[in-house]
Every structure is written in structure tokens, then in C-alpha cells.
Specification:
This protein is of the alpha+beta class and 122 residues long. It is built from 3 helices and 3 strands, in the order H-E-E-E-H-H. The chain has a single domain, classed as Zincin-like (2-Layer Sandwich), CATH 3.30.2010. It has a 3-stranded mixed β-sheet with strand order 1-3-2, covered by helices on one side.
Length: 122
């Protein structure tokens, strides 16, 4: 259905997360990093209100919360943030989850600079 048809359209779907992940993996800096292919990782929408997103290594899943990500730019920033956690984890970084970790901060700052984001928003 088209715009204005009364149908609620959400951009935050599992399929769209997979498409965004594939796209970001083809763009800098992820195109030069050792990232899993989209079929090797699960990307799921959750309704959790306590998170924006989460990388869960035990089930190899990135979760993005529909309760906290209502706009496309927030969805993208949250996915990029979780992709940095995933990258750090794949580098055998024991502190992949730590926002103060040196590698995490370095990659996140690079992404912020590259895409024109405030690093505090990532």
C-alpha cells in the first residue's frame, strides 16, 4: 500500500536489518574488517524497552529494540554500534561489550567521523 493509505509501515523488520547489515558490510570501514556475512549472523527485532540494541555472542545475534528505535537514523546508528561490538568480539577482544575499551572506542570514533555522526550518539 502507498503512502497515506492508513497502513502503518515500519522500517524496523528482521529482513530490513539484514539488508542494512549487508549494506554496512559493503561500506567503509566494515568492507575492510573481518565481519561475518549476513547469513552467518541473526538480526532480530525485539520489543525490549531497556536497550537500544544488543549483540549477544552466545546466539550470534544482534537485537534492535522497536521500543527504542523509531526512526531510520536511530536504527542505523544502533545497528552500527552493535556491529562494532560484533567486530570487537570477532577480534577475540575479551572486553567486546565495554564501551570504554580502546578498540571499541577507536572503531566507533572512526565510524562517527566517516559518517558525520556525533560519537556520543553511536
Amino acid at each position: 500500500m502507498g503512502v497515506g493509505s492508513g497502513t502503518i509501515l515500519t522500517l524496523l523488520t528482521n529482513e530490513n536489518l539484514k539488508l542494512l547489515y549487508k549494506t554496512f558490510c559493503r561500506m567503509a570501514p566494515f568492507d575492510k574488517l573481518d565481519m561475518p556475512q549476513a547469513h552467518q549472523i541473526k538480526l532480530k527485532v525485539t520489543r525490549r524497552k531497556d536497550i537500544l540494541g544488543e549483540f549477544a555472542p552466545d546466539d550470534n545475534t544482534i537485537y534492535i529494540s522497536s521500543a527504542r528505535n523509531g526512526h531510520f537514523d536511530t536504527i542505523c546508528k544502533t545497528l552500527l554500534h552493535e556491529m562494532v561490538h560484533l567486530y570487537c568480539y570477532k577480534q577475540n577482544n575479551e572486553k567486546y561489550y565495554d564501551h570504554d575499551d580502546k578498540l571499541f572506542k577507536k572503531v566507533l570514533k572512526h565510524i562517527a567521523d566517516l559518517y558525520g555522526f556525533d560519537p556520543k550518539e553511536l
